[in-house]
Specification:
The chain is mainly β. The chain has 7 helices and 49 strands. The strands form 15 sheets. Strands 39, 43, 44, 47, 48 and 49 form a 6-stranded mixed β-sheet that branches. α6 packs antiparallel against α7.
Length: 781
């Protein structure tokens, strides 16, 4: 019915439109012969070969082929106003094959109408003309009746605008896919497919070849997709975007990326009778996030290690840690960074062994945390079930034919850090699936093997077994690894390493260094995993003999050079090559029952020994050169720029000084030798002081460690020593003067000994003069 709102506005109200017609976009495909089977005429959503409004030509004939007897009268071609219609007479189950009789590709519409021939008025297509017979004129009516057209062309033909209802179009899904490159990240050739809930007008865009600008006019993305992409309509309800250049993209993440539609894109339902579609995400029309993936996961387990927080025990116990290192940073399986519960861990991981291939519990209760790079998951054992432990046994690290494995479940949704690959699945068997053309083509990183030597990457031919083109056995490696040949999914490591040093031989070393034998427990059979420090300096290993099962044995090393009688600590460090942990122990411990009890100890350096002095006899006067030979004086290299660089003990570094020479007087007393020069570990040079005894012994003092005096080779004869200088006590008394004068007269007159060259031999008062000086009197006193 109609009504005038005012003299310029006429309103038509539809009272009965009968059953709505069903419309579909379609495309003529000359490369096809028979296409499209539609099981439900009313749900006709695939491509149909048909045409609409062929320009300046008569519509081609359509050949209909009825495939089922009961559909013989289901569809009837109907031509009306140069449009082809196929009318449904009510059957709900009929099929049709339409064969085009032309050989070019044309975009068009197949419109399925009800029997009444009614079709909804389409926004942007419906136009109205005025019948002259109606007598519509301007007001006041002075001209001829109008037909609603403008001969001058000044006013173009008006088409239907506005809307009959809000848009019912919504986004059903946004799916990622990778059809070309088979990698695990977003890149060239990847697809994002947007599925709407019903057929649309395709935003008046072409079927194929939709440009980036046209896409951006229709859609808004939660992050940039890149610098270039294109799209095509798979059907009127499905738009597929294909990446051309992802440069500068914002990493569309699975479960986080979403798409909204823009009003300016003019996306409507089909036929387009409702308003422009604006999908922005709200309570009634929530955001639809990206699902599926851009390629298979390339994540594999690189290391599965048992570790202890202390090394007081070697058994499975509360507090031990299991470290699972993946090959790359992950999305953490959407788990929190820390305080991960046991149910959350169990949803991500499964544990089994070769003894219990379907389930072998890790423990009764545990918690987890991710490393800062989201590549390593640490699981701490909080509780052990004794009955469970008795039934299954502990998850023992590899060895003795036992393999305890970890698996990754699809339910854990573990993906790469970019949230772009498929969920990682590593099943409960000995297989770890790897992507074809990815890591599986290169083999596993040799870090997953034990004792790989110089091998950096296991090739396919070197690994144990390849399954088809997508799987690889990872419970053992091939020729690139030696030893146990255990790989990454199998638990390695230990629950603690008890290291103890029980004995050292010898306990006193020459200053030049010597072989040191270190006995104890916990040493690794591989020499490279052991280190010995003497006084804080490395003692290079020269040999090792350790029982592989008890880890008890000996190591020999060449101690560094050093000096000093103080104890230098000896420390042994053992590195667990699997976990990388380092356990240290110092000398020395004694096994008491089952516990090693520590008692501090170490080594010291032998004292110096004087073996010869050149010359062996000297005048009693000072400034005569002596060369002292012997052993354990300490090498000159130990005192780099006068700073001691050898092993340290209880004495502060500043107290370590170069060795000095002294003369021990016959009858007692030490006199320092003047200007000691450190020549080598076996020789010193000095100048003599004035000697006060008829005999002396050369000794060497090395930071408090003094050589023994009066041994053969250290004794020095003193020539022409004045008797008074050691027979009398030097003091400013008459007693001293009398004693001195007597001794002087005896020595120079009775023994007829020559006087020193600097004495005045003509002065007959030489003894009084000398004695005045010896006793401390001035010549004038």
């Amino acid at each position: 019915v109609g009504a005038w709102i005012d003299s310029r506005t006429f309103k038509i109200t539809v009272l009965n439109s009968t059953q709505e017609a069903t419309h579909f976009w379609c495309e003529a495909k000359p490369e096809c012969s028979d296409i499209l089977v539609c099981p439900q005429c009313s749900l006709f959503t695939s491509y149909v070969d048909c045409v609409k409004k062929m320009p300046d030509s008569t519509l081609p004939d359509l050949v209909l082929n009825m495939n089922t007897p009961d559909c013989s009268d289901c569809l009837h071609p109907l031509v009306l106003n140069n449009e082809t219609f196929i009318s449904n007479n009510g059957s709900s189950d009929c099929r049709v094959c339409v064969r085009p009789l032309f050989n070019w590709q044309v975009r068009g519409i197949c419109r399925f109408r009800n029997n009444g021939g009614f079709s909804p008025p389409i926004i942007g297509e419906l136009s109205v003309s005025v019948l002259v017979s109606a007598g519509l004129r301007e007001f006041p009516p002075v001209t001829e009746a109008t037909d609603g057209t403008d001969a001058s062309g000044k006013f173009p033909r008006a088409f239907l605008s506005g809307e009959f209802c809000p848009s019912p179009v919504m986004i059903n899904s946004v799916r990622a896919s990778d059809t070309k490159l088979y990698d695990s990240i977003f890149g060239y050739g990847d697809h994002i497919t947007i599925a709407f809930n019903q057929p649309t007008n395709m935003a008046d865009l072409p079927r194929i070849g939709i440009t980036k600008n046209q896409i951006d006019n229709l859609l808004n993305f939660s992050c940039s997709l890149g610098s270039n992409y294109s799209a095509k309509w798979l059907d009127s309800a499905t738009l597929q975007i294909e990446m051309v250049d992802t440069g500068g993209n914002g990493l569309p993440r699975i479960g986080q990326f979403f798409v909204t539609t823009l009003a300016r894109g003019n996306l409507r339902n089909f036929p387009p009778v409702c308003g422009q579609t604006v999908v922005s995400g709200n309570k009634s029309n929530p955001k639809v996030f990206l699902s599926n993936h851009f390629g298979p996961s390339s994540i594999y387990i690189k290391r599965f290690i048992a570790m202890a927080t202390d090394d007081k025990s070697e058994v499975y116990r509360i507090g031990v840690i299991f470290s699972i290192q993946f090959s790359e940073s992950t999305n953490r399986g959407n788990l929190p960074q820390s305080n991960i519960s046991k149910p959350q861990i169990d949803n991500l991981l499964g544990f089994n062994s070769n003894r219990f291939p379907h389930f072998h519990p890790l423990g009764q209760r545990y918690s987890g945390s991710w490393s800062s790079d989201n590549q390593t998951l640490l699981i701490r054992l909080l509780e052990i079930n004794i009955s469970q432990l008795s039934e299954f046994g502990p998850p023992a690290p590899a060895g003795m034919g036992f393999f305890f494995r970890v698996a990754v479940k699809e339910s854990g949704d573990l993906r790469n850090a970019a949230y772009q690959c498929s969920p990682t699945v590593i099943d409960d068997s000995a297989q770890a699936l790897t992507m074809y053309g990815g890591i599986g083509a290169q083999g596993l990183d040799c870090d997953c093997c034990r004792q790989c030597g110089s091998c950096n990457l296991c090739s396919i031919t070197q690994c144990n077994s390849i399954l088809a083109s997508s799987g690889i056995l990872v419970d053992s490696c091939g020729s690139c690894c030696t030893g146990l040949k255990i790989c990454c999914r199998v638990l390695k490591g230990n629950y603690g390493i008890v290291v103890a040093v029980t004995n050292l031989l010898p306990r006193m070393l020459p200053t030049a260094g010597a072989l040191l034998t270190v006995s104890g427990k916990g040493f690794d059979t591989l020499a490279a995993n052991n280190q010995v420090l003497v006084g804080g300096l490395i003692c290079p290993l020269t040999g090792i003999s350790v029982d592989a099962s008890t880890k008890i044995g000996n190591m020999t090393c060449l101690s560094p050079a050093g000096v000093g009688p103080d104890l230098k600590p000896v420390e042994v460090s053992v590195v667990d090559e699997v976990s990388g942990r380092q356990v240290t122990a110092s000398c020395c411990s004694k096994l008491v029952g089952t516990v090693y009890v520590f008692s501090p100890g170490g080594i010291s350096f032998q004292p110096p020994v004087v073996t010869a002095v050149v010359p062996g006899s000297i005048m009693y006067t000072q400034n005569q050169k002596l060369t002292i030979f012997g052993t354990n004086f300490g090498g000159t290299a130990l005192f780099n720029q006068n700073k001691y660089i050898g092993p340290l003990g209880s004495i502060p570094r500043s107290h370590y000084v170069k060795p000095v020479a002294l003369l021990v007087m016959q009858g007692g007393g030490y006199i320092p030798c003047l200007n000691t020069e450190h020549i080598s570990d076996s020789s010193l040079v000095c100048t003599t002081p004035e000697v006060t005894a008829s005999g002396a012994s050369a000794v060497v003092n090395s930071i408090g460690s003094v050589s023994r005096p009066w041994i053969p080779g250290s004794i020095i004869d003193i020539l022409n020593l004045p008797l008074y200088s050691y027979a009398c006590t030097a003091e400013m008394t008459g007693r001293c003067y009398d004693c001195c004068e007597v001794e002087c007269q005896i020595q120079f007159e009775n023994h007829n000994l020559e006087l020193e060259t600097d004495l005045d031999v003509e002065n007959r008062n030489i003894c009084p003069k000398r004695c005045f000086e010896f006793c401390g009197f001035s010549p004038t006193s």
